[in-house]
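@channel anyone free to eyeball this complex?
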Amino acid sequence: MDDFRSTEIIFGPQHPGIHGNFAMRLELEGDMVRRARLVPGYLHRAFEKLMERRTWHQNIALVPRICVPDPDVNEAAYSMAIENIMGLEVPRRGNYIRSIVLELSRLAAHLMGLGGLGGAIGLYTLPMWTNGERDYVLDLFEALTGGRVYHMYTWPGGVRWDMPENWPRKALKVMDHIEAQLPSYYSLFFESKVTDARLKGLAPITTSWAVEHGVTGPNLRATGLEVDLRRDDPYAAYEELDFDVITLKQGDGMARALVRWYEVGQSIRIIRDAIEKMPGGPVIAKTPPPLAFMVPPGDHYAHVESSKGEYGYYVISKGGKYPYRVHVRGPSFTHGIDVLEKMLVNQELADVALITGGLDVCPPDIDR
Amino acid sequence: MSPGHRQVIMMTDFVKKTIRPFRALRFLARKPHTIISPHEQHNDIEGEPLPTERYRGIHINDWETCISCGLCARICPCDAIEMVDVEGEQKKRPEVSYGRCCFCGFCEDVCPRDSMHLTSNYVMIDKNSETFTFLPENDLKEFQKEYIVETSQLRYNDKDVKKAEKEPSAKKGGKGKKKK
Amino acid sequence: MAWSTTTWVMAALAPIIVFLAGHLFLGIARKITARIHRRRGPPVMQQFIDVFKLFGKRTSTTHSWVQDMGALFAVIGVIACSLFIPIGGDPVLSFQGDVIVLVYLLAIAPLGMALGTGSTGNPNSAIGVSRGLMLMLAYELPFAIVIVTIIVHFKTASLGEIVEAQKGFLDWAILSLPLSAIAADLSLQGMLGEKPFDQPVAPSEVASGPMVEFGGKYLGMLMIWHAMSVVVEAGLFVNLFLGGGVLFGGGTTLALIGNIFVWLALTLTVFIFSIFINSVFGRFKMGQALKFYWGFPTLIALIGLSIAVLSNLGVF
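replying in thread with the prediction:
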């Protein structure tokens, strides 16, 4: 490229528009991005290697750190892989609680993601509201699991503890509260001429392009393809719960944001349904104590539908106390490196933060 | 749809989408959802104080029931717990380093005699970093009380604060006095 | 031209009033924005605290003397502007055509900032400055038409006389020229740099743009410039359309002080209205902002101008 015509901007990691701890090198011609190069690595902690030197249970404390806004999918997918290798059957009540925790986590992540979109176009009212509501979800997590952000609650064989007695009532109250707030978000963000101008037609992708590049989750559903692991390959208690798979056709920034907004409603519906149908019984299967926990040789790929896309854990065991190898398939790696690099080309500088936020990229998951 | 009709729809859409966001202004008259920490108490949706009982904070360890099996040290994913010799005690006791602890609560889970517990106290303030490694005992020890702020003490109201400001360093330990 | 004692006092007081009011207004604006955000917000005096803190800091880097001059330029430009604005109906500098001088002077302070940031070599600042100048081009067009409308309507180009002509409540230009008032208010939004027109300082796009290389005293100076320009620009709107706050006649000192407070209250109202728009809308892209300003506001400004011209000619 002609050096006299282009400006290079280092976008991040210290930039208010970047969604976490990674950087982009943008080659600009005027206001247009001609080439984008992603520079990950600021958060690399070698999770997959660390997991080989920790026992099966110790890893539970490690995996949620792979995706900060949506940590529970890690614990769930990792536990599911182990259960599958061992042939453990999770009690029904354990599965229901898992579903609730996963949906709460999705709810919190989507609220944060929507707030990020508001921040990217300078509408700071939205992140302040959504993060305020997210705090009630964190309060619920605290009462249930003892942790606000990293819960370490899902455990091979079930969940660590049963719910406190008053917890379902509190959860329903929080759901009512969040549902009552959703129209305010809609009228502020989606019923606004400025948001229309910014998001409609922003970086549209087609279904075939998205499938080719490994786009999953809400971003794929925004292109019109009806895929949802919760329905297609049910795990936890999703088979018995009522919910709709939200799809929109346009595949642009507006569709990606709207899918998330509708999924907040669906999460609330699932949580209410699960609390209503909650069966009794134990929450965790009979397993050997954590320090004598051995997994027989075998391997399994367990995947869950996270708030960002398909989240998978491929676990290999050669028998013994430690996993032989764990591989994490995170959605943000595909969305954040390959897809983003291609989507940013020929977009304006003003839209860079918005596209990144619209894809809901989670940097700790890129680096791992 | 006639072109005129479409234009009417576009106009109403424009007006609607210009006016609707102003609904946010009604929050001017409502109570904010943040609190003035620590002057106000952090409550959950039902008005119950936080943190809850399950909150995983600083450890306590009942030395009467602790059999010093060392399971907590073995399960600890962060290597934060070490079994150390204590003067006047025959058994080794777990020592927790809070620079490492990730508050997962696994030590509490594996404890066979149920002696190790994580309390809901989480505020530790001290200038000396060595104080953050200590042996958890039955209750918070005297010297720890200087820098571990018990959660119940965080919940004071404005009157208490003003009172405390009027009587400087009356309640503070020896360290606070020497500062100036 | 011999100045009276009141004029001398006002010449000394005008920048101080504008300085104090500006920071107070920004503090109130922060509180109001926080309330819409459902936060509690910082104390009203937070802006003063911030500025004094910044002036207490030592400057770690400066790029060249041009940068020093740029920040100074911005502050001096806005102080000069404050002398032209009739505060409480009493302009310090008043002559035929001072509206036009003021419009030019208003552009000096942003140019000073452009000068200062241009020398820092940060691409974010460069993009921010170019956006700022482009935005100026955008909002100046409807605003210039509005100024011409006002001159035609009141048949004078002196701010003092324009304020004088709006003595009674029914003479306010906002009632006789409502379309121009809307156009002026929309231009004011861009002038103040509030959303949806804050592209020059957009944090998530250009990392606060021009301010990115300024710290310590420089940032303090830019904050003073911003606070003062808020009062000058919102005050200009008050003088043009809301009668300049002249409530008490008689020309006594007491009446003048009363008028100053009325003027400040009106200015605050105009600014808070702009803050309301700021907190419920996102940010346009640069091209969209240009398109917006050269569309609707320019159109209604032109209609307002033609109405003013026709009524002057005696058609209505």
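from a first look: Chain A is about 45% helix and 10% strand.
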